[in-house]
Design a protein that fits this description.
The complex is a heterodimer.
Chain A lengths: L3 H13 L4 E5 L2 E6 L4 H10 L5 E9 L11 E9 L4 E9 L15 H12 L58 E5 L11 E7 L2 E8 L7 H5 L4 H7 L8 H15 L6 H29 L5 H19 L8 E2 L2 E2 L7 H24 L2 H7 L6 H6 L5 H5 L6 H4 L20 H24 L11 H6 L11 E7 L2 E9 L5 E7 L1 H12 L8 H6 L5 H5 L1
Parallel strand pairs in A: 2-5
Antiparallel strand pairs in A: 1-2, 3-4, 4-5, 6-7, 7-8, 9-10, 11-12, 12-13
Chain B lengths: L12 H17 L8 H4 L14 E4 L3 H5 L1 H10 L5 E3 L4 E4 L8 H5 L5 E4 L6 E2 L1
Antiparallel strand pairs in B: 1-4, 2-3, 3-5
The chains are: A alpha+beta, B alpha+beta.
Chain lengths: 543, 125
């Protein structure tokens, strides 16, 4: 758990280093440096201080207020230390002419993040950077403040001639004729509509694969810059429709943390209930996808069970998936009469039926055969920055509900399931066990539900009367444990009650990057079920 | 908490047969289908639940309120998808853009907007 003594210790260490400006805010370290010092800092924090994961990377164009801010651009690296649960932001300030070193060799999963930021904001890295999301041949940089969304003149390069046997022969390291490349595009069932996937088969099993994303990109982060905070709260639900309240809660929590707003106790309890119900719904979706991919009829029972959760959401807020539940400063409505009794009925049904379905599934030999592949090592997981059930299946015991507990999570009894072998069968078991643990959490909270108000009515006053504390200078990152991993928001506020820059941290982005390294040695009929067990969502990748 | 080791063991023929038998019992009960409420009772018991259930925002104000632009324009500025357009004569709601978040009903002055269960009208003026 987070400890203030350890925070003070590492604060003393970080503030002693020269060539940097240090300050602390909201329990996170912030360090401001110039590009020439970056590599030294990265080596130091990775090898000596133990910041092993790069959670997110975000760039911003600060040219809107040139008098306030001398440098044109800023890059923020957000690191997490899993040992003592501390978070470090490294702010890199530079002009447009300057060259920034890549940290790709220290943190492999920085590769896609750097490529995304470079093509969105035109950042010059020291080695050439290929495009990731945007279409080829375009010359606009959409996240610049001067950019306008409109008619882009695309200069598309001429297509290469199509070769049937080995289309990527010049690039691929597998020249033998027994190695066959197959292409699964977005419309194929194997990729679940997420990305284009080129897979190399040594005729029986998978050796290598390539992922091409960006097919669902709509410029969501650019859209949010033109909306106010309350409007963003309504739009953010659409990132993962299967579990909508998670992203809304994460967004509300970033604002409440930066402006030090305390929400009432009943709202905290209801938020925990909704988060856990959303987790159950998402896990049931993934389990249904896995069983459908393994060609078992039991998938429809998981879908029916998920429908129970959606009905609970519908009675509360009017939408099946739980849209518009949360407002800034609390919840939007109180619970309707009789909702708790209906939850208890659902709880009883789920506890009775899910284990029966599970036992009948794992007794079938074909189901086990579909899930025995896709072995993932703990080292590989850390290398690619993956979190959530995939990380716990590999044997790492780390959950944000335990390590950085918010609301009432530290007063609740629940366990974190940890896998043994790291195969997709382990991921299946962990998702099933987390459903029971979530039910356990919700029943505990509902038994001790606090009375009182549901929303903080003073939120408007807090902003309009200028009660905003002066120490709020800029960036804040807050995250929570969503069903597929760590999800959260980077937020830089602007004075007109709308975000100056938002970066959405999603688990799907790092999972999609790691797919070629996770999916090895599989047969062709195992591809779909093992990809489904990761829980990648298409809007989370492209945003 | 480490997962149950029995899940990793191979199942005997008998237990697999027994589990499939349990599963068949469960399908016979149709336990998941006992819970549909609003399918049968809709829309007569809607008031019991959320005011946003199966409803869409509609303009119910008078023409005087519409001509007073300070009140009506608030809905247009609040809408996160820009689905509302207000002119001096008419109040347009584009239902293709509306995500039924209910911000316009929540923050508008009373008597101007309402959540209504009428889904037949696509463009209202």
């Amino acid at each position: 758990m987070f400890n203030w003594k350890e925070f003070e210790k590492s604060k003393n260490v970080l503030s002693m280093v020269g060539d940097a400006f240090y300050h602390e805010e909201n329990g996170q370290h912030h360090v401001h440096i110039r590009p020439k010092n970056l590599i030294n800092w990265i080596e130091m924090i990775r090898d000596d201080l133990g910041y092993l994961t790069l959670v997110d990377l975000v760039a911003v164009d600060r040219s809107k207020f040139p008098s306030k801010y001398p440098y044109g651009l800023e890059l923020v690296y957000h690191f997490l230390n899993m040992g003592n649960h501390q978070r470090l932001n490294i702010h890199l300030h530079f002009n447009e002419d300057e060259v920034v070193p890549r940290i790709n060799s220290f943190y492999p999963h920085a590769d896609w993040m750097e490529r995304e930021q470079a093509e969105m904001l035109r950042i010059q890295f020291d080695s050439p950077v290929a495009g990731l999301i945007l279409p080829q041949g375009q010359s606009q940089f959409p996240l610049r403040k001067s950019a306008r969304i409109g008619n882009w003149n695309l200069e598309v390069p001429p297509e290469k001639p199509h070769i049937r046997i080995n289309p990527n022969k010049s690039e691929a390291p597998y020249p033998e004729e027994s190695h066959v490349w197959k292409k699964f595009d977005v419309f194929s069932a194997e990729t679940m509509g997420n990305f284009d996937w080129m897979v190399c088969f040594d005729p029986a099993s998978v050796i290598d694969s390539k992922v091409r994303i960006g097919l669902h990109h709509q410029g969501f982060e650019k859209l949010l810059e033109s909306r106010s905070w309350i409007q963003v709260l309504q739009l953010v639900d659409k990132i993962n429709l299967g579990s909508a309240p998670t992203y809304a809660t994460a967004w509300a929590r970033t604002l409440e943390d930066t402006y030090r707003i305390k929400i009432p106790e009943r709202a905290q309890a209801l938020r925990i209930v909704m988060l856990e119900l959303a987790r159950i719904a998402e896990h049931l979706t993934v389990l249904a996808e896995v069983t459908l991919a393994a060609q078992k009829d039991e998938f429809r029972f998981f879908i029916d069970a998920r429908e129970k959760i959606y009905e609970l959401f519908e009675k509360y807020c009017g939408h099946r998936q739980g849209l518009g539940l949360i407002s800034i400063g609390g919840m939007r409505d109180d619970l309707p009469y009789g909702w708790i009794i209906e939850y208890q009925a659902v709880n009883e049904i789920l506890l009775k039926t899910l284990k029966t379905i599970h036992h009948s599934l794992i007794g079938q030999r074909h189901f086990r055969a579909h899930l025995e592949g896709a072995y993932v090592d703990a080292q590989t997981v850390l290398q690619w920055g993956v979190s959530g059930p995939t990380m716990r299946a590999a044997g790492l015991n780390f959950d944000l509900r335990k390590s950085q507990p918010f609301y009432f999570y530290q007063d609740i009894d629940f366990d974190i399931p940890v896998g043994i072998y790291g195969t997709s069968y382990d991921r299946y078991l962990i998702r099933l066990e987390e459903i029971f643990q979530s039910l356990r959490i919700v029943t505990q909270v509902i038994d001790n539900l606090p009375l009182g108000e549901v929303s903080h009515s003073d939120f408007g006053q807090v902003l309009s009367e200028g009660k905003v504390p002066e120490s709020v200078s800029g960036w804040h990152f807050s995250s929570l444990e969503s069903s597929n991993g760590e999800a959260g928001f980077f937020h830089l506020p602007s004075p007109d009650f709308s975000p100056y820059r938002v970066k959405i941290k999603t688990p799907g982005f790092s999972l999609a990057q790691a797919v070629p390294y996770f999916m090895k040695g599989l047969s062709e009929n195992q591809l779909r079920s093992s990809l489904a067990s990761l829980g990648i969502r298409r809007w989370e990748i492209d945003r | 908490m480490i997962l149950n080791r029995n899940y990793y063991a191979k199942f005997s023929f008998f237990s697999a047969w027994w589990n499939s038998r349990q599963m068949k019992k469960l399908t016979g009960e149709k336990i998941f289908k006992s819970f549909k409420l609003h399918k049968t009772e809709w829309p007569y018991k809607l008031y019991f639940y959320s005011p946003r259930l199966k409803r869409r925002p509609r303009f119910v104000g008078t023409s005087e309120q519409l001509s007073n632009w300070k009140e009506a324009i608030l809905c247009e500025t609040l809408c996160p998808t820009h689905a509302i357009k207000v002119t001096a004569e008419a109040f347009h709601i584009d239902d293709r853009g509306c995500i039924t978040c209910g911000l316009c009903v929540e923050f508008a002055p009373p008597g101007l907007m309402e959540m209504s269960a009428d889904s037949s009208v696509i463009h209202q003026s």
